[in-house]
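Backbone-to-sequence.
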């Protein structure tokens, strides 16, 4: 169709930019810490509360409970429309893992990172010590209508097992 004439040389740069650009747009190499900071900056998606207890004990309880339900691969499948009256089966896998980090101010964060067709932080917590027996916790992206349930799940350590229940209601 384009042959070896002028059309070929017009389409080649477009094709190359799409091929190279698509790898950069996947965010597969985007650090989790950058994703965490981005989510924390969106205040409407952050639920903040204080929890009594030693910061290290709270963090260890969450990590221990999360290890039972976080690590692994989620598989999904379905169909998508591909034209008039045509459905095409699709499936994907998401690798999920719990990542930890420390911010410059000394606060700790835990984030459920998911990598597959998309790369994102599905849910996270930021823990900032308020002394030896109190912790300020920021849950993100979280549903601000459910602060009591979020606090209950964090206190029990089950937050990363039930994060879908309290995550921000995307529209």
């Amino acid at each position: 169709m384009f042959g070896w004439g002028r059309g070929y040389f017009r389409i080649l740069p477009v094709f190359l930019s799409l091929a190279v650009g698509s790898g950069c747009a996947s965010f597969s190499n985007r650090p989790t810490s950058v994703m965490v900071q981005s989510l924390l900056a969106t205040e409407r998606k952050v639920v903040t509360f204080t929890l009594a207890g030693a910061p290290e004990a709270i963090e260890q309880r969450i990590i221990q409970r999360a290890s039972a339900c976080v690590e692994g691969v989620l598989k999904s499948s379905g169909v998508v429309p591909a034209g008039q009256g045509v459905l095409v089966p699709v499936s994907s896998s998401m690798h999920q893992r719990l990542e930890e980090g420390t911010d410059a101010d000394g606060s700790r964060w835990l984030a459920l990172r998911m990598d597959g067709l998309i790369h994102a932080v599905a849910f996270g917590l930021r823990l900032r010590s308020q002394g030896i027996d109190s912790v300020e916790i920021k849950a993100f992206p979280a549903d601000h209508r459910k602060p009591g349930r979020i606090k209950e799940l964090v206190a029990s350590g089950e937050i990363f097992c039930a994060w879908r229940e309290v995550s921000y209601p995307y529209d």
